[in-house]
Design goal:
Layout lengths: L10 H5 L24 H14 L4 H20 L9 E2 L11 E9 L3 E10 H4 L1 E10 L9 H17 L13 E7 L3 E5 L2 E4 L16 H11 L4 E7 L1 H12 L3 E7 L3 E8 L15 E5 L13 H8 L8 H6 L1 H17 L20 H8 L7 H11 L5 H36 L9 E6 L1 H5 L1 H20 L2 E5 L3 H12 L6
Parallel strand pairs: 2-5, 5-8, 9-12, 12-13
Antiparallel strand pairs: 1-11, 2-3, 3-4, 6-7, 9-10, 10-11
Helix pairs in contact: 2-13, 3-13, 5-6, 7-16, 10-11, 10-13, 11-13, 13-15
The chain binds adenosine-5'-diphosphate (ADP) and magnesium ion.
Adenosine-5'-diphosphate binds next to helix 10, helix 11 and helix 14.
Length: about 500
């Protein structure tokens, strides 16, 4: 495990953010500002049409919120009843703060996986100590066999466990327990088992689909001679909710806005007809909405439709494709290609590099939107570095307008989705949300770093709820809460008493 990077952001985030967000470019560059004028003549109608197709006035937001609530309800009646899968998490006891002892968490959700240990000291001492490490999954293992992948994970985990010491203590006679955050589609069968439906995000490991991923991990840990058991299998949204709830009892919803997007919330078991009488003892359970699949009434453009048609999952995950980090930059790129083809953005030629899909990342659009310099120097520098084009001020302004249009639509629709969830909760149990303080825990690189997006999201929530109700709704960034959240869920689902 050579690539331990304690406390540093995932490599993927670092490498996808090559540009300085500061208002001055790293290397001063002289721009060729005099080549063209009248940039906007042909690009302007494209921009105007885009802005009207992407518009999210209050009635559109309201429709999305209502449709989200209706789709949630339909998905709770029967599996397959709606775009939203409304997956039962089997998490029906949330952290209270009383948890004590040593717990681990393992997070596999992309090209990195993270391991974490925490020593919990109960109500008074809370989190006594936490340590974590991050490991990159070698490319070949993403295409190998299930045993190879899980052996790699278990061996990295075993090395991490070997370094346990200091404030971390396991009582005699106990096995270590871990939470397992696994962010791939799983059919959960209990709190500590779930069948992998299919690999996504570039993984094509043979032999895992159809199998219980907890059993795969347990067997690999046994092969490594590691005495550890998985007490809770959860997805990252559920872990985020648990992590935030540990500090704040009013957390009822968690939303991830990163590469992809998802949301979960605390639901009353009486509102879940598809449970068929299997009732959680607490009367409440966390439901994972899988809201990325929502599609009803979204203001989509031809650029969205083209991107969707060329994607690996056409027709699927439309909400995710409209609001999440993986796609915002790509939508902007497609619009800029159209403007460039009209010959009115970067001179006669369409810049070669602009033609490659997914070269224009969402971090790029957010740094351009954060450029406050008079001449939009950061925008100029980014366009030069990312696409090799010299741009004049008119072109830079146009590019920023396009970025803003797409970020605004995304942020406002995400806000409408959140209101849809709150509305659904309130309609089914009066007073559960709107009569009191309610916290929505947010995490993910897009929400964390894209300041305009975050503002648009909050504005939409306020517009929809009005000043009075929205003053009770607190949208809070719960940074990396999912790691500790998974460890806490291992604690609340421990086989030992605490
Ligand atoms: P993941 O969703 O892959 O688990 P993160 O929550 O860290 O990981 O989110 C990473 C995503 O966040 C990136 O794919 C990117 O879309 C988005 N992102 C990262 N940095 C920024 C930024 N500066 N501005 C806007 N979006 C960003
Ligand atoms: Mg994540």
């Amino acid at each position: 495990m050579s690539s331990f990077a304690v406390n540093s952001p995932p490599a993927a985030v670092r490498s996808s953010f090559p540009f300085s967000p500061s208002p001055t470019p790293r290397t001063p560059r002289v721009f060729n500002m005099a080549v063209r004028s009248g940039v906007s003549t042909a690009a302007l109608p494209i921009l105007r049409k885009l802005q009207s197709d992407c518009a999210t006035p209050l009635p559109v937001l309201r429709h999305v919120a209502d449709a989200m609530a209706a789709d949630m309800r339909a998905g709770l009646v029967v599996d397959g009843g709606s775009d939203l899968k409304m997956i039962l998490s089997y998490v029906d006891s949330l952290p209270t703060g009383n948890e004590r002892g040593l717990f681990y968490a393992l997070d596999l959700g992309g090209t990195n996986f993270r391991v974490l240990r925490t020593q919990l000291g109960g109500k008074d001492d809370r989190v006594i100590a936490t340590e974590f490490d991050q490991v990159t999954i070698p490319q070949d293992l993403m295409f190998g066999t299930s045993e190879e992948l899980f052996d790699f994970i278990a061996s990295a985990l075993a090395k991490f466990v070997k370094k346990e010491g200091g404030e971390f203590v396991l009582p005699d006679g106990r096995s270590r327990e871990t939470g397992f955050t696994f962010s791939f589609p799983v059919r959960q069968t209990s709190i500590d088992s779930g069948i992998l439906i299919k690999w996504t995000k570039g993984f094509a490991v043979s032999g895992t689909p159809g199998k219980d991923v907890v059993a795969c991990l347990n067997e690999a840990m046994k092969r490594q001679g590691l005495d550890m058991r998985v007490s809770a299998l959860v997805n990252d949204t559920v872990a985020t909710l648990a992590g935030a709830r540990y500090w704040d009892n009013d957390v009822m919803v968690a939303v991830i806005l990163g590469t992809g997007t998802n949301a979960c919330y605390v639901e009353s078991v009486d509102a879940i007809p598809k449970l068929n009488g299997q009732k959680a003892t607490s009367g409440r359970t966390i439901v994972n909405t899988e809201w990325g699949a929502f599609s009803n009434g979204l203001p989509l453009t031809e650029f969205d439709r083209d991107m969707d048609a060329e994607s690996i999952n056409p027709g699927e995950q439309l909400f995710e494709k409209t609001i999440s980090g993986m796609y915002l930059g790509e939508i902007v790129r497609r619009i800029l290609v159209r403007m460039a083809e009209s010959g009115s953005l970067f001179g006669k030629h369409v810049p070669e590099r602009l033609l490659t899909p997914f070269t224009f990342g969402t971090p790029i659009i957010s740094s351009m939107q954060q450029d406050t310099s008079k001449d939009l120097e950061v925008v100029g520098s980014i366009l030069y570095e990312a696409m090799g084009v010299d741009s004049n001020l008119d072109a830079r302004k146009m590019v920023v307008e396009v970025c803003d249009t797409i970020a605004k639509r995304g942020g406002r629709l995400a806000g409408a989705g959140i209101v849809g969830i709150l509305q659904k909760m309130e309609e089914d149990s009066k007073g559960i949300v709107f009569g009191k303080r309610t916290v929505v825990a947010m995490d993910g690189g897009l929400y964390e770093h894209h300041h305009q997006y975050k503002r648009y999201l909050k504005d939409a929530v306020t517009e929809l709820l009005g000043p009075e109700l929205s003053s009770n709704v607190v949208i809070e960034h719960s940074k990396d809460g999912s790691g500790i959240g998974a460890a806490l869920l291992a604690a609340t689902n421990s086989i030992y008493e605490h």
